[in-house]
Amino acid sequence: MFICRACCRRALSSTLVTHPIPSRLCSASQATNAFRSLDSSRNLATAAATTPNAALPRENEATSVSTTNSRDKAIRWKVKKHLEFLDNNYKIAEHVERTLEREDYDEALLLVREATRKGDVTVSWNHLIGYLMRKQRLHAAVKLYNEMKKRDQMPNAQTYTILFRGFANSDHPTLAVSEAVRIYHTMMTSKRLQPNVIHMNAVLEVCGRAGDMDSLFSIVSTADEKLRSPDNRTYTIILNSLRPKIPTHRLPRRKPEEEEDEAEPDAERDPAVAADMAVINQAKAIWEEVITRWRKAKIIIDERLVCAMGRLLRHGGREENDEILDLVEQTMDIPRQDKVSASLPSQERPQPSEEADRPTQVIRKIKEHGRNGPKPRPVGYAVPGNNTLSLILESLRATRKTTLGPRYWDLFVNEYKVRPDKENYASYLRLLRVGHNSTKTADIIQEIPPAMLTPKTFRIGLSCCVRDNLNKHAFANATRVFRAMKALRVPDPMAMRLYLQATRANFRPVTANLSEVDGKFALGRQIAIALDNMWEPFGTLTRSFSFSSIVTCSPEEAWQRSSNEQMEAMAVAKRMVAAMDFVVTEEAADARVIKQLRTRRNILNRYVVMYNDRIHKMENKIKSLERVDVDEGASESRVI
User: Fold this and answer.
1) Is 95 exposed, middle or buried (0-12, 13-18, 19+ CB in 10 A)?
2) Carries keyword Transferase (predicted)?
3) How confident is the model at residue 508 (pLDDT cuts 50, 70, 90)?
4) Cα–Cα separations (whole angstroms), residue 285 to 213, 278, 279, 290, 550
5) HEC profile of 456-516
6) Closest C-alpha to 87, from 119, 126, 122
7) φ, ψ for residue 153 (rounded to 5)?
8) Residue 69: helix, strand or coil by DSSP?
9) How far apart are CA 544 and CA 114, in angstroms?
10) pLDDT tens string 129-157
11) pLDDT 10s digits, 91-119
């Protein structure tokens, strides 16, 4: 069988390798050989197309190996030169620390290994282990610790402290607990180095962060009166470890006709509450041990330990929250303000007579630091601070003893010279809101430093004015709070709504002892004043949407970012329009004021209409863009 000459020429012309043909006509065998060469050349071309670097792996591998070898040689040369000048262990450790600061771990590791041949460089090994722990490389750190011992470098107390503290800060608490407990028990069986109280506390912190209470109490059982005598940090860690297991319960309100000794909440009916009370009782048993050791002058009680116990009591009922005041009196020598006459000055108030609560060491007064210094504190008692102030204010809010809040606040701020922080101010404002004390709220907000003012501050203050609707000065207090909001760069729309709500809610004191016409006119005048105060801040709020920080995004993305704030602003505008309609339709103000309100109402109405049109257009555009994205995604999936 012969093949066409044109077909053979066309087949051979497409090959990568040209095969000579002896004659113009070829036989079938020659054609078959030609097609075989064609297939082989096609296979080679396909392989070359699919793996363009198929012929280069060995070359790349050789290049990478050579690069690695050259880098290793450079590091070894640097290490050799450094060791020529580092003639003592202190200089070696200092150089390793500087090397790790510039993230050159390989050079530091090689230098320490080479220096190990000449002497003891345990401090340098500690720097390496600490570096790995900071990088969350627990396995590598433990491996390096084992290598350190194999190279006859004996770990010291600082080595184990670095390990345990690294385990405590680990992002893998389960793994950290197992390794920390294993190393700790290894230390317990060692005759060379026994764990001390610092090591025990670090392992307790590891177990507490992981919530492994069984391991925690197994470590506690290793305490003794020599190397591992429990201190204030030990008990603080234990109490803080118990606390995350208890969720905070909302305390129900007690009706006036209910008896005082009624349990609240009912532990017998709610298993969760019963379990929580069991934990609190366990914490109370631990606290008895703390007080016993404190009276024997074996430990020092500080604010962290007191607040750890107080936070546990906060999760109980009203009785446990009330015990916080006794706790502060017992450990800080601050008398309960509900048992002290408010008419007496603080210097003349009687002190607690229970001498059993005092430690056995001599109680003497510390000299006062200057005329305006803090109140002298007796030695042995904890020093109150911001954490204690927040704890007391929260317990008073839970027990609804709101009248004691200003007493404790003045005691801490004026006598103990505690500078309130943001959390202290927030806790105090919440307490005043529960007590409907709008006057004190306005005073405190005006005293807060501008750097600590947030939108939440004004929301709490204005909501307090809304609740204080029987106070004839509530509107004036709300106005003081609202005007203080100028410290913010952009007014808060929710606070503006609360201000307008406080204006409408406090109508009873305004209209009391007035006729219907006079009362309506007085309420209208009050609303007009509030609307006039809100006009300029509302303009600042709306302008912030147009002149916000420049961002490289589309109008649709910018709209989605600020849509919630604009919706809140429109809600404020609608409330303002409704208030203006009330004053205008009821003619509850002067003619000049009504004329001004009509003009401003028209402006607000047009703004609301424009906003509604804009939101409909933007939502339709966003939906169309999302539909296009879905269609494009579907088409791409079909192509794939």
Assistant:
1) buried
2) no
3) confident
4) 16, 11, 10, 9, 59
5) HHHHHHHHHHHHCCCCCCHHHHHHHHHHHHHHCCCCCHHHHHHHHHHHHHCCHHHHCCCCH
6) 119
7) -105, 105
8) helix
9) 63
10) 999 999 999 999 999 999 999 999 999 99
11) 899 999 999 999 999 999 999 999 998 88
Q: Would you state the structure tokens that stand for residue 114, as one six-digit string?
A: 């080479």
Q: Which residue bears the tokens 């028209």?
A: 602
Query: Which residues are within 8 A (CB) of 315 and not within 5 positions of it... i.e. 6 or more apart?
Result: 243, 246, 247, 248, 249, 276, 280
Residue holding tokens 């059982």? 221
Helices (H), 364-421: 386-399, 405-410
Residue pointed to by tokens 């939440």: 456
The SS3 assignment for 27 reads coil
Look up the pTM and report it.
0.75
Structure tokens at 422: 């943001």
Q: Which of 79, 78, 89, 159 is nearest to 119 (CA)?
A: 89
- The C-alpha atoms of residue 614 and residue 349 are separated, in whole angstroms, by 66
Q: Does the structure show a pLDDT above 60 at 615? A: yes
Level-2 CATH architecture, domain 72-237: Alpha Horseshoe (1.25)
Confidence of residue 317 (pLDDT cuts 50, 70, 90): confident
Determine the Cα–Cα distance for residues 293 and 234; give it in Å rounded to an integer: 13
* Percentage of the residues of the chain whose pLDDT score is greater than 70: 73
Q: Give yes or no for a cis peptide into 20 (omega within 30° of 0).
A: no
Q: Strand locations in 87-182, DSSP E? A: none
Whether residue 199 contacts residue 190, with contact meaning beta carbons closer than 8 Å, is answered with: no
Give residue-wise pLDDT tens across range 549-575: 445 566 656 666 667 888 888 899 999
Distance of alpha carbon 612 from alpha carbon 285, whole angstroms: 63
* Residue closest to 162 by CA, chosen among 146, 150, 147, 145: 145
Q: What angle do CA 63, 69, 71 make, to 5 degrees?
A: 105
Residue boundaries of the structural domains of the chain: 5-49, 72-237, 238-249+269-340+374-435, 453-640
Please state, in angstroms and rounded to a whole number, the distance separating the CA atoms of residues 431 and 111. Answer: 60
Mean residue pLDDT of the chain comes to 79
**Alpha carbon 59 to chain centroid distance?**
51
| Alpha carbons 475 and 504: distance in angstroms, whole number | 9
Which residues lie across from 378 on neighbouring strands? 365
Q: Which residues pair with 365 in a beta bridge?
A: 378
Report the C-alpha gap between 522 and 534 in whole angstroms: 19
Question: What's the pLDDT score for residue 268?
Answer: 52
